[in-house]
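Session log. Operator J.P. requested a structure for one protein chain; no other inputs attached. Running the standard single-chain path with token output.
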Amino acid sequence: MTLTRSDVHSEAVQAALAKHGQRKMAVPMPSKRRSLVARNSAYTPPDTSSGSEGEDSEEDHGRARAGRRGGNAAVAGRVVAARRSSAPMPTRPPPPLPRPPAVGVTGRGRQAKGLAQHGLCLCTPAAPHQQHRKPEMPSAPPDVTSSTNNAATADEIQGEKKSGGGHRQTCKYGNAELMETGDGVPVSSRVSAKIQQLVNTLKRPKRPPLREFFVDDFEELLEAQQPDPDLPKAEGAQTEPAQGEELGAESPCLEAALQRWASVSPKSPCLTSVDANGKPFCQLTYGKLWSRSVKVAYNLSHKLGTKQEPLVRAGDRVALVFPNNDPGSFMTAFYGCLLADVVPVPVEVPLTRKDAGGQQIGFLLGSCGISVALTSDLCHKGLPKSPTGDILHFKGWPKLLWIVTESNHLSKTPRDWLPRIRDPGPDTAYIEYKTCKDGGVLGVTVSRAAMLTHCRALTQACAYTEAETIVNVLDFKKDVGLWHAVLTSVMNMLHVVSIPYALMKVNPLAWIQKVCQFKAKVACVKSRDMHWALVAHRDQRDINLASLRMLLVADGANPWSVSSCDAFLNVFCTKGLKSGIICPCAGSPEALSVAIRRPAKDTSETPPRGVLSMYSLSHGVIRLDSDDKLAVLAVQDVGRVMPGAVMCAVKMDGVPQLCKSDEVGELCVRTVATGSSYYGLSGRTKNTFEVVPVTSAGTVVDDSPFTRTGLLGFVAASGLVYVAGKIDGLLAVGGRHHNADDIVATALAVEPMKFVYRGRIAVFSIEVLHDERIVVVAEQRPDSTEEDSFQWMSRVLQAIDGIHRVGVYCLVLVSPNTLPKSPLGGIHLCETKQLFLEGALHPSNVLMCPHTCVTNLPKPRQKQPEIGPASVMLGNLVSGKRIAQASGRDLTQAEDSHQFLFLSEVLQWRAQSTPEHVLYTLLNSRGATASSVTCSQLHKKAEKVAAMLAERSHLRDGDHVALLYPPGMELIVSFYGCLYAGCVPVTVRPPHPRDVATTLPTVKMIVEVSCSVCVLTTQVISKLLRSKEASAAVDSRTWPPILDTDDLPKKKAPLLYKPSNSDTLAYLDFSVSTTGMLAGVKMSHAATSALCRSIKLQCELYPSREVAICLDPYCGLGLVLWCLCSVYSGHRSILIPPCELESNASLWLWAVSQHKVRDTFCSYGVVDTSTRGLAMQTDALKSRGVDLSRVRTCVVVAEERPRTSLTRSFSKLFKDLGLQSRAVSTAFGCRVNMAVCLQGTSGPDPTTVFVDMRALRHDRVRLVEKGSPHSLPLMESGKILPGVRIIIANPETKGPMGESHLGEIWVQSSHNASGYMSVYGDEAPPSDHFASRLSFGDTHSQWSRTGYLGFLRRTQLTDANGERHDALYVVGALEEAMELRGMRYHPVDIETSVVRTHKSIAQCAVFTWSNLLVAVVELAASEQEALDLVPLVTNAVLEEHYLIVGVVVVADVGVVPINSRGEKQRMHLRDGFLADQLDPVYVAYNM
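Structure written below.
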């Protein structure tokens, strides 16, 4: 062994940081809302026990130059779109139209102004309809695997953003202005710069990149760490057990010793207790201790219960609940229990009902069968009580009878009664509790023989003599404090001076002052107490420690106590402290005292030290290292084996085999002086207290069993014991073992006193993705700025990586005095870990580094190059499986009484045949009829609209007319008025009157892109379009003529228009997709009639039917059901505007019940509003007479994967109102076909299957059982409509797929849309979406591509025709899917996992940027909980999806934009984030 300095680790840390030079961390600093910063600045004055204010690090490394939050970037360029002109047309327009500013969400200021000036919206990417040229696609995002650094630094981002206050209920952001980075990627503002900064850090990985190849299996095995042949391995000879010195002569038991001292020297001082002011308040002599203990024993034996049924019998367990400042009462109760032959179980005082670890202690008391608790009078008064004065029942605790042990509360002992002194034997003397790594509490039973033998061994090792004075700072209820100050002191008639923890917080020199005052021979302290004394000694002069012959350091087994011991000796050697009297010791609750260093007889000798390589120690190997290495650990010996004991070191894992001489293992001892069992746990007892070590040859070392100590160390050839850590403190990361205390010491060596408190750092590990990840939590000083704290966190990560060669998964800073405390003021590690996992830690700063820590991600999938169709087709089989194709009912065999080609003709026929039949009834928010219209009324009003169009606008046949109406009758009347006039209606959602600047640009864009020559609207909306607020967003002069239909002309049109061809355009359907793209499709008269006919046949709609519709009537199936189907089928439609549910959530269900409707259609937004808003009102609805038992079909209309969990919750919630779960189903439609599937009145119930989510990522379908790991429920999207054919095709090769194979859904139907509405005009060629052909097989048929992935599965059910039912399952949209690591992820799956992580997450949306996954979560709680979500979100996505979240954004509720159909607008959210317009609470950039 070589000698080393105590500050070698601090120098090593500084050297490791110096390796990085003056380079600052490249990762961007997290963004935090100013209100959150202000809240974090308010703090409670820190506990003085947390550390020293005076110790500052010598070096100050400056501050990071990370840009502060709130800046908007200078815009390098601006993309504008020119007006559509009559220039030559490009050859191929893109199918989707440009993305609008928002639906309910759009830009402010310059974006809106640019829209007005240029006639179209500024969009990202650039608008494809620029003048005279083809659209230009934006550059691809930068590749994170590239080593080129092209990103703008934070210093280049300038400008200050005006701060906005308050919570927002609706999002107020739009498209970003664009600037170009070096990679050619349009980015904007500070956010994009920070993302680029983060990407640049990932371009320089510290770990070697993963090998990228595709393993085609379903298990997705994680990347296995390959063994390194250069790893350190143990090469020494096998060790032999070390024998301790022989134990001296036997002595009487403790009760007999107490009786002897009480009779021989009754006035000899036994205990002096000091109060919080440093003054003695309790002086206990041996005579008093004996008499009071006898009194307690008598009352326990005779005064509890009755003679026939005593409450406490011999051998029963009794709880001792005493505070840390009352050792006298504790000693009296402890020895009283021993004299009464009951087993004392000392526990901590529960100050509140939810104390840290209190519940686990209660479980221990319950398992021990404890019904009686002894306590002091002051403690009893301080326990929390109910208003009646009874002590509250603590969580997890059994019902207890509380007994106060003061003499005035006990019965007098008869003079002739004496307790029976029992001989030491195997019976249990006391139970000491132990807190495990997982937070559980175990009870270690110590027999009477072990207790006596242990006291004898301590007496011999410490050379105790009678009447010596010992100063004790430790907890006297357990461990070293109990062994020395309560047990061994009585055996040797010692005088114990007890210093409470409360006094040490006020006066850290109190124990030294008492040593001087009482001329104590021995002091029992921790290295913490020595450190505090070093800080406070400067003002003290009259200190003389010459009386001390032994300074026992209870935590001397911790290697990081070396510095405290050396520094204390260097300072106090001038105060009479002898150099050889500092005696570290090692012990554990199971093995009691393991080793103690004896005081040196020759004070000139320096104790040997070992300088060990930490890297080798992490592999369990001992390698001596020189002082000039960085990653070294200086360890001091803890003396020799205890007298009468045998010690050996065994391997930590597997068979307890003896270690080699250069190998670290768990220390095991064989002696009588150990615990005997874990109370009530025979299995764990055998594994810990009955260990039989074996040699490498398999022979047993000793016939007697050994006891595991829980200490990690080795025995040197000299016989000295060295401890390198504790088994419970080991962090097993990546096949290596790191000691938590080592990590703490490294963190403290990085300028500790400036930013965090010395004693307030917790290090633990959590399991994420099948491996342990290191988490560091520290209490931050209140005077530290955000930038300083972030810089310190960055330096800690560098230091730990450089010293320990391991990455920190998460580094957390919390406010002072917020971490749960143990009874003596330390951090309660298990409770801290639990709070972290539950998201209840409330950090002030979080820094996560998953990219550097998680190296076992699944191997990335590498798609094979396309070589043509890989399937072999024979008949209707593909590779041995049936082709995935299905069709609905054949329309040629359907009976239809009137097969009109034009809806206008149908309305005219109904006005003549059934003029008084009511077609539409509109309800208001109170459920009353706001208006209704008959066939004749609708026909006449439509004629007047047609007359007005002909008179005022002079429109030509085929002109497009925009309809801006709220949901109601006016929209229907104007729609048919346009058909009567020969015009093409375009339904557009009107701008919101309270948010004109946000919603109006989208309206203007649809009007322009649809080439509308006229706008029909109401008088109110007409005034709104011409208002000043609207003019600020859109130039009012650019609007086409606006006609008010409130006052229609009284004359009707001279001649109603009849189309010459059924293929001519009937109406335009514009919709904003979930990716934010605006797309308009053309619907012909033939397709419109065919669609209405299919729905009529599927749902059996006849004039006698009533249908309730709660949908937005502006696009898709909502427009068809609201405006078209009633006219075609003749049924009565009860119209319920979804906006009315905001004021009356029960309107829809009430209307369905009141009108006794059997069929109803709604959106997911309506279902969600009803589920959330009426969750607690089902009983009230039932009392009002709401009855849903008549509902036959409740169809949720959507263009997405069915939301299985929402529909289940809805069905379950309203089951008591009569709603049948089989009635709730979904419909599926898309842009190319408004209605592909719709659950009709006849046919099998919708089915649900469970698929493996991992297989879906590889574009495969694997059916699993319900509840299987990684299972995903998929609900059937309804029955295929009549006249519709479906086939599943490979989206890349366009070849047909087999049944139950994932592919793109292709559809063939007479009601398919005829094409996209292009800004280039009707001369543009049709899109490939509407005229696709298979690459092999039936290559002649034309199909329309839906853009949705799904699969067909033939079920065992039969349809109305007796044939097997083919079920269609929609997985997700192709344009929404994210390609990450070569696999296809659907955002909804990741979002579902994120929402489940914490109750405060109201909504979530994910998207990608620069190959980074960004997660935006809405915080439905106080801003204080914002940072709790960052690690939870990261953990959930890693565990369930094997992805690393690059950026976590915590925002207010309402930030995630949702359209009228309840679908998230993720691309608008992405634009708002990159433009720095979200006003987030916190933005975390995961390294």
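Operator note: The chain has a mean pLDDT of 81.
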